[in-house]
């Protein structure tokens, strides 16, 4: 829009120019009468209230001579330069027409001075001033008003005009707010307080004789009820003067009018021919334009359109660009007033009556904030002082509301207007901002406006653009052009045309004016204000920043760092910044380089305004929000600067409230140090609470992804909810990993946990972090109540700044939940465990903490006691205590190794604080002393395998064999084993055959390790659902003592007894004393074996095995045929009657050994168990004793008699008694083919049909040995009837019955009768 012709059509500097721009002018002010309100004399305490009341009287309705009601509008100013008043001919709304003074005096001298100042003001503006009023406030409540005639101006000396005024004065009306109209001026009755004279005994005041102004006198504290009436009278009088001027101008002949000039044009027309055609047209155009201005001011807006149009056509024809521009501007103003009649209703400070809510043309301004304040405050200065401040946003405006607000442009509603006093001027001015929801400026329908010269919206903008172009041609009209740009921009804003408004504002930046620093500030403030209205926040921020720099420039004689700071602070939204650092970090919008520069300048401004707390806060904000955009060097430098700033004033996590009411939110350093890991830790295992009663598992599966009882199976789990529990009054821990990103050591002090919910006592920590090295830090605290605890984050004190680092505000990429939630249960007791083991157990007293290990060594068969002492180390009594054991053994073996009395334990409850309870644990080295010497090659590493039959197997260091009694093929134990087809002669429980199963069979030939855990579950206090669990690890080492490698049974000297012959091996390195009976013992050297005969009574025939014995199943599972129950019965009989005790002579350690689980062959069973038949054998009538050998000669006839008796309680049937002779070669071979060696006479086999109970049967035969040698007689009795010898067999008899003629059972006479035959 600027043109180079401005230097051609304008004069050099020094001409009369408008040097005081008025940036507050708006387009509707072209139709207003200008009145100056001035305070003179002493300070009037209620001046601002009076000023507000005067401002409200900005419009009155006057009925002219034709009966037409006119709206007369007034603009009040507090100061007005005379230079601008000189432009009154160019634009009549710049003329100062009225004067109102508000003064205070306390004595006559001050009154005289007030009158003098008032008169001097009239003289100052005498060229344009029409009328004035003086409101004077003196001491007391009422003052005597001197009788002074009102001042009469020359304008009223014309008798015609005076009469016309007098005839029309009766039609004056008061302001529209009070009444529509009044018939005459007499209706303005003054209150008696201002018109009645009182005699004051102290002093009577009189005005000077040269004081000719209409003055009103009041007491200092009077309410001045008639203020509005007097102001309305002044406006009314001003209107008639303007109206008379308009009528006078309209009646002038255009051919004889004089040329109107702008102040700088006076030299342009010197010496020119004013009678030329062009100059006459120039005069006519300018006078017509002047008449249009007067017409617009006198309330005839529609008529002024025609006059503006006519003047523009005339001026255009003579290329009078300056006045043509003024005509176009007036045309636009008149059209805008008609199209938007409520433009003029934005009455300052009239917040209720004048707020309009009907404009549909508003757009919300682009902002990062939303205001909750109903009013926004603007600060305007007087044109003379040129101090205009930018809007001061309330604190809520700088607080982000949503990310969408960045993209949304809106205009502020009138309800969001606020007032504040200017920092540089006492002028207050309010402007209205409108929302799209409640528009305030309704358009007049075009159907109601039939004026052909009424401009449309587009025409207004276009004519304003052309007018500005014409203004730009004149350098001396730069301020006129600037004001026109602002007025055009404001009307474009009302038209909701942001681009056009931006064009007008952009033109202001290129207008070259010689302005003072304050005027430059005022211009940038106004630009920023308008840019905000159209949503150009970045440009608004740019202008605010320029205004801030002007406040502290070197050319400014009075630098104002305070205003600089606030302007920069209010430019944050335009730079996409918010005062809330969390919002900035979350959204990361804007231009980081500009933001960093702005923040650094804000820090400098805060320092220069001597506010170290603000400087520290903004530097912390800079480090926190801009950290990712800073280089390593910048991070280091800014951190050092922050440390220096905080040395003056420490930063804290509390909001700072400025003197304007704005709130600066706290800024917390989460990058220094950087937290990469933050997790609450469960309590240590010894203090972890467990449920006393476990909840039943839902569903039949060990694991299932299905959530039973929930329809929303894919519901998201609360990531911050911890599954474990914390305990009241227990020290709890949160583990975090911190990294120092700075290149120097960083001291972080007073680190605490931030919590909510129940009371939590956090323990402070201090740590020094090395550069770039992750460090694990544990923060501790103690919950003091029961309930839900939320861990929100942690606090730090580093670089002189205290920060509350909340998890929800942690920077990416480490995403933490908003909080961690833990359940805190009531206090639980704590214990210490002490173990004491007897000396024989190779361990002395030992104090054990929970989870420690106790090592005990025992020999197989050794017993000892372990005393466990439990001490209550808390203040909570132990009311519940339970002991259980977990080990690598099966349950049966475990109960034999570990034994305690639970009743004794429960009787010691409750355990008071600092008291002790004891548990006596009996330990026994349970082992299987029957060893299989040759099994190592089969299962070298297994302790739980099923071993094959171990009877008769070769054992190292053992004797070669047992006595020859076992050499008979039918009686030998070895031969009996060879004939079995089962897996083993005896076996473990079938459920423990796996090699990885718990220990149940423990071979005695080598040491074994038993790992057991004593689980102590205890609770107390007010929590009956949870308990603690302490673990005592016990490693029990079982050392080999003795083992039995071979065994056999031999008949004793009497039929009721037998000998159990054992091969016992000493597996220790010491000499052992083995007691195998009460009175008999034997010494066995270390690693040596010894054969021991143990005398036993034979198993009675009527004794049955105990069915509830735990080894019954074990024996039955490996025995076959009819001998199953007999073997079990005989094995139990031997186990119960064999008592082996050993003693290590050197160590004085004693123990027991058992033959439990011994296996017997069929031949052994016959020896062990007493026969149901009573045998009596005689040779030649000589009764044979057991193991007695009979000698005879070959060929000698021998009489052999055999008698049997039935001991059963029932008869025996189908018996067959037989006698057989054989030779035993003692090498395992038995020869029964003796036809050539033995001859018998009589039956060697007799069948007995029935043998009654207690009955006897006798059989006799004769035998002759033909050859010498050693012979034996096998005497046996068999039956084909099923035998039910014991109840067990009878109850569990097989369903398979023997066939007819099949032998069911055989009884032998043992030992066999031996006969030695000689020649």
Automatic annotation (TrEMBL):
A GO term from the CC aspect: trans-Golgi network
Composition skew (Polar residues), residue ranges: 962-997
The Trs120/TRAPPC9 third Ig-like domain, residue ranges: 1057-1168
Recorded superkingdom: Eukaryota
Domain Trs120/TRAPPC9 first Ig-like, chain residue ranges per copy: 694-795
InterPro entries the record matches: Ig_TRAPPC9_Trs120_1st (IPR058565), Ig_TRAPPC9_Trs120_3rd (IPR058567), Ig_TRAPPC9_Trs120_4th (IPR058568), Trs120_TRAPPC9 (IPR013935), Trs120_TRAPPC9_N (IPR058563)
Domain annotation Trs120/TRAPPC9 N-terminal: ranges: 89-348
Name the record gives this protein: Protein brunelleschi
């Amino acid at each position: 829009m600027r043109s180079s012709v401005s230097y051609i059509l304008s004069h050099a500097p020094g001409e009369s120019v408008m040097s005081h721009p008025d940036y507050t002018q708006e387009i509707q002010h072209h139709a207003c009468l200008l009145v100056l309100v001035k305070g003179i004399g002493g300070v009037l305490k209620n001046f601002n209230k009076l000023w507000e009341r005067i401002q409200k009287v900005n419009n009155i309705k006057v009925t002219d001579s034709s009966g037409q009601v006119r709206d007369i509008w007034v603009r009040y100013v507090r100061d007005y330069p005379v230079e601008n008043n000189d432009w009154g001919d160019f634009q009549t709304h710049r003329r100062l027409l009225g004067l109102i003074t508000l003064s205070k005096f306390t004595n006559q001298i001050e009154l005289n001075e007030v009158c003098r100042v008032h008169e001097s003001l009239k003289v100052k503006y005498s060229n344009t001033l029409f009328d004035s009023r003086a409101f004077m406030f003196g001491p007391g409540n009422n003052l005597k008003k001197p009788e002074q005639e009102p001042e009469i101006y020359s304008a009223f000396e014309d008798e015609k005009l005076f009469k016309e005024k007098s005839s029309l004065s009766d039609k004056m009306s008061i302001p529209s707010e009070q009444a529509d109209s009044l018939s005459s001026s007499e209706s303005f009755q003054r209150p008696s307080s201002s018109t009645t004279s009182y005699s004051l005994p102290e002093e009577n005041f009189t005005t000077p004789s040269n004081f000719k102004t209409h003055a009103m006198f009041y007491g200092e504290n009077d309410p001045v009820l008639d203020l509005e009436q007097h102001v309305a009278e002044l406006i009314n009088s001003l209107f008639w003067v303007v109206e008379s001027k308009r009528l006078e101008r309209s009646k002038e002949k255009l051919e004889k009018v004089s040329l109107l000039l702008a102040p700088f044009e006076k030299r342009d027309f010197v010496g020119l021919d004013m009678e030329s055609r062009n100059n006459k047209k120039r005069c006519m155009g300018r006078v017509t334009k002047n008449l249009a201005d007067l017409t617009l001011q006198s309330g005839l807006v529609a008529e002024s359109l025609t006059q503006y149009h006519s003047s523009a056509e005339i001026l255009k024809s003579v290329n009078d660009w300056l006045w043509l521009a003024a005509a176009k501007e007036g045309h636009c103003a008149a059209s805008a007033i008609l199209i938007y009649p409520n433009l003029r209703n934005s009455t300052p400070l009239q917040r209720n009556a004048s707020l309009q809510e009907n404009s549909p043309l508003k757009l919300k301004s682009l902002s990062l904030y939303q205001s909750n304040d109903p009013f926004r405050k603007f600060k305007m200065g007087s044109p003379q002082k040129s101090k205009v401040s930018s809007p001061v946003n309330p604190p809520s405006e700088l607080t982000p509301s949503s990310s969408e607000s960045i993209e949304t442009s809106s205009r502020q509603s009138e309800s969001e207007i606020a007032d504040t006093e200017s920092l540089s001027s006492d002028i207050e001015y309010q402007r209205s901002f409108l929302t799209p929801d409640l528009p305030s400026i309704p358009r007049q329908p075009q159907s109601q406006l039939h004026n052909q010269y009424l401009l449309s919206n587009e025409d207004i903008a276009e004519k304003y653009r052309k007018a500005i172009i014409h203004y730009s041609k004149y350098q001396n009209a730069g301020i006129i052009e600037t004001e026109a740009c602002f007025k055009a921009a404001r009307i474009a804003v009302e038209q909701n045309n942001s681009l056009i408004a931006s064009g007008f504002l952009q033109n202001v930046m290129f207008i070259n004016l010689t302005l003072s620093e304050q005027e430059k500030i005022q211009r940038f403030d106004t630009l920023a204000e308008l840019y905000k209205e159209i949503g150009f926040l970045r440009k608004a921020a740019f202008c605010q920043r320029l205004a801030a720099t002007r406040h502290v420039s070197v050319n400014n004689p009075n630098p104002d760092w305070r205003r600089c700071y606030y302007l920069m602070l209010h430019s944050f939204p335009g730079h996409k910044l918010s005062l809330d650092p969390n919002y900035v970090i979350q959204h990361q919008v804007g231009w980081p380089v500009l933001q960093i520069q702005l923040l650094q300048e804000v820090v400098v401004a805060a320092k220069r305004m001597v506010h170290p707390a603000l400087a520290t806060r903004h530097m912390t904000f800079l480090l926190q929000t801009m950290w990712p955009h800073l280089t390593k060097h910048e991070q280091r430098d800014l951190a050092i600067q922050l440390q220096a700033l905080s040395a003056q004033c420490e930063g804290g996590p509390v909001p700072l409230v400025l003197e304007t009411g704005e709130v600066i939110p706290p800024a917390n350093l989460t990058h220094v140090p950087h937290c990469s890991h933050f997790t609450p830790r469960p309590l240590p295992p010894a203090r972890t609470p467990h449920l006393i009663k476990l909840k039943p598992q839902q569903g039949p599966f060990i694991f299932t992804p299905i959530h039973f009882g929930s329809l929303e199976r894919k519901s998201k789990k609360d990531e911050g909810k911890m599954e474990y529990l914390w305990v009241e009054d227990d020290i709890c821990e949160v583990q975090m990993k911190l990294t120092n990103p700075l290149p120097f050591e960083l001291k972080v002090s007073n680190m605490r946990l931030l919590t909510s919910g129940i009371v939590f006592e956090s323990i402070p920590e201090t740590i020094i972090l090395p550069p770039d090295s992750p460090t694990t830090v544990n923060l501790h605290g103690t919950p003091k109540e029961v309930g839900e605890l939320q861990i929100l984050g942690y606090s730090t004190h580093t670089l002189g700044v205290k920060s509350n680092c909340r998890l929800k505000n942690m920077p990416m990429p480490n995403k933490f939940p908003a909080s961690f939630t833990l359940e805190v249960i009531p206090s639980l007791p704590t214990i210490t465990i002490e173990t004491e083991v007897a000396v024989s157990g190779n361990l002395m007293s030992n104090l054990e903490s929970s989870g420690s290990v106790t090592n005990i060594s025992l020999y197989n068969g050794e017993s000892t006691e372990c005393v466990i002492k439990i001490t209550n180390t808390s203040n909570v009594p132990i009311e519940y205590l339970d002991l259980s054991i977990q080990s690598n053994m099966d349950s049966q073996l475990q109960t034999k190794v570990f034994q305690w009395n639970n009743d004794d334990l429960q009787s010691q409850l409750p355990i008071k604080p600092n008291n002790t309870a004891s548990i006596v644990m009996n330990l026994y080295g349970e082992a299987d002393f029957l060893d299989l010497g040759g099994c190592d090659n089969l299962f070298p590493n297994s302790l739980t395998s099923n071993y094959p039959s171990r009877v008769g197997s070769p054992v190292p260091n053992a004797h070669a064999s047992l006595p020859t009694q076992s050499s008979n093929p039918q009686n030998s134990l070895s031969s009996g084993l060879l004939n079995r087809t089962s897996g083993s002669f005896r076996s473990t429980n079938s459920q423990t055959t796996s090699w990885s199963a718990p220990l149940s069979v423990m071979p005695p030939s080598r040491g074994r390790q038993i790992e057991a855990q004593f689980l102590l579950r205890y609770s107390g206090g007010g929590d009956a659902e949870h308990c603690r669990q302490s673990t005592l690890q016990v490693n029990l080492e079982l050392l080999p003592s003795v083992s039995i490698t071979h065994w056999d049974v031999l008949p004793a000297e009497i039929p009721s007894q037998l000998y159990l012959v054992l091969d016992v091996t000493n597996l220790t390195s010491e000499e052992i004393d083995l007691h195998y009976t009460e009175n008999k013992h034997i010494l066995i050297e270390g690693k040596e074996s010894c054969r021991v005969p143990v005398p036993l009574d034979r198993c009675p025939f009527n004794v049955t095995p105990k069915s509830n014995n735990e080894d019954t199943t074990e024996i039955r599972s490996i025995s076959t045929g009819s001998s199953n129950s007999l073997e079990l019965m005989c094995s139990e009989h031997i186990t119960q009657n064999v008592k082996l005790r050993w003693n290590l002579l050197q160590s004085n350690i004693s123990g027991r050994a058992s033959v439990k689980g011994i296996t017997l062959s069929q031949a052994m069973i016959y020896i062990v168990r007493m026969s149901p038949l009573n045998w009596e054998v005689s040779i030649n009538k000589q009764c044979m004793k057991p193991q007695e050998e009979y000698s005879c000669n070959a060929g000698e006839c021998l009489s052999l008699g055999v008698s049997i008796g039935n001991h059963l309680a029932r008869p025996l049937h189908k018996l067959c008694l037989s006698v057989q002779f054989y030779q035993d070669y003692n090498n395992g071979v038995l020869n029964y083919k003796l036809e050539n060696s033995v001859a018998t006479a009589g039956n060697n086999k007799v069948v007995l049909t029935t043998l009654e109970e207690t009955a006897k049967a006798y059989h006799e035969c004769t035998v002759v040995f033909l050859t010498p040698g050693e012979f034996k007689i096998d005497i046996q009795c068999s039956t084909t009837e099923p035998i039910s010898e014991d109840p067990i067999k009878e109850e569990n008899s097989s369903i398979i019955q023997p066939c007819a003629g099949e032998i069911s059972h055989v009884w032998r006479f043992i030992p066999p009768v031996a006969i030695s035959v000689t020649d």
